Amino acid sequence: MRPHLLGVLLALGICAPAAASGGFPVSSVDTTQTGATSPGNPFRYVAFPVGHGTLLAKIRRADGATLRHRALNGRVVVAAVAQDASTTGLSADGTTLVLAAPRRGFPQRATRLTIVDTATLRPRSELVIRGDFGLDGVSPDARWAYLIQYRGGDPTNYAVRAYDLRRGRLAPKPIVDARNPGEKMSGFSYTRATSADGRWEYTLYGGVSEPFVHALDTAGRRAFCVDLPGIDSASLSNLRLAVRHGRVDVVDGVGAAVRHIDATTFRVSKPRAGGAPAARRAASAPPGDGGFPWVLAAVTAAVAAGLAALAHRRYRGGTASGRKRSTSSSSATSHA
User: Fold this and answer.
1) How many beta carbons lie within 10 A of that of residue 37, not counting itself?
2) How far apart are CA 251 and CA 136, in angstroms?
3) pLDDT band for position 153 (50/70/90)?
4) What 3-state class would DSSP assign to 45?
5) Which residues, in sequence order, are CB contacts of 248 under 8 Å at separation 6+?
6) Please, are residues 48 and 16 in contact by the beta-carbon 8 Å criterion?
7) Which terminus in the chain has less CB density within 10 A, N or C?
8) At residue 174, does pLDDT exceed 90?
9) Which has the closest alpha carbon to 215: 166, 151, 261, 154?
10) Model confidence over 30-69: pLDDT tens digits?
11) pLDDT at 317
């Protein structure tokens, strides 16, 4: 059987430091507890700092078993997209994972992304993009990465950009709501939900103007801003988004819907009185993970102590070339 990360953690007494967020301009957001996955995908990918490098692990969501791990040169993390540690980076087809260099300040002069093959965990390429960007999504076929471009040193002044991963360049124009092309996006992201097919990314924003949900079509390169009138900005940290058949619900801390958003027309409505509350996502376990205690096991990919030591020795000389980066050590986790 595959070893369970938590068991090895307890056996070795290993505890790795939390990783800083990548992209999202709040460096204290820790994504080692959530990793990257997508609806219906049986795997979760977690990245942990080990020495001056990163240990990337592929974990089966059903039982928490580690299936493969790889030591990567340099620090990279699963990118956060909201204050509740919602993440992004995995394409819906399951083939590609985009990792980000951890943010060490704001603004930053350049943004580094690492494109990983999920079958081998081997890096395919590394992108260095001039300017301050945060990863915001990946198209289902991994053709496009979506970036938040921060402008003028103001974390509330930004634009959504599409980056062509095949051609290695930004699309020339920002992605805006065609219904209001001159409207400026502003605010902070609180939480994120993804459609079942991985195409739509719904993000709840607030903090500057009226709260709104940003609906990003990662296949069609279009976006819609859905205003949420009547919602108190002070309550945003307690709200979550739940994707239902044909709609997106804004739900409160006990799982009751406070607004319905039609997923086709983006019309907003209030729930009828006495309606059944939406199902709550357990705070201690991401959906589909069989109750695996991620809070305790978030750092357990560092169990490959020998691998981590080898990676540290191999890369202690400094930044490797692109070829050396792509040949980082990897192995499938052995059977117990």
Assistant:
1) 25
2) 22
3) confident
4) strand
5) 193, 202, 213, 215, 241, 242, 260, 261, 263
6) yes
7) N
8) yes
9) 261
10) 898 899 999 999 999 999 999 999 999 999 999 999 999 9
11) 34
- Provide CB contacts within 8 A for 148, sequence distance 6+: 23, 133, 134, 135, 136, 158, 159, 160, 161
Distance between CA atoms of 66 and 333, rounded to whole angstroms?
A: 6
> Quick one: pLDDT at residue 299?
41
Lookup: tokens for 90 = 């995995």
pLDDT at residue 320 greater than cutoff 90: no
The region that residue 50 occupies, defined by phi over 0 for left and psi between -120 and 50 for alpha, beta otherwise, is beta
Evaluate the CA torsion angle 283, 286, 288, 291 in order and state its sign.
Answer: negative
pLDDT at 62: 96
Asked if pLDDT for residue 205 goes beyond 80, the answer is yes
Residues 6+ apart with CB under 8 A from 230: 270
Of the candidates 298, 323, 325, 303, which has an alpha carbon nearest to the alpha carbon of residue 53?
325
The answer to whether 4 and 15 are in contact (CB under 8 A) is: no
pLDDT at 227 over 90: yes
163 vs 113: CA distance, rounded Å: 11
d(CA 82, CA 322): 30
pLDDT-derived band at 104 (thresholds 50, 70, 90) equals: confident
The residue ranking higher by pLDDT, 181 or 145, is: 145
Residues pairing with 88 in the sheet = 79
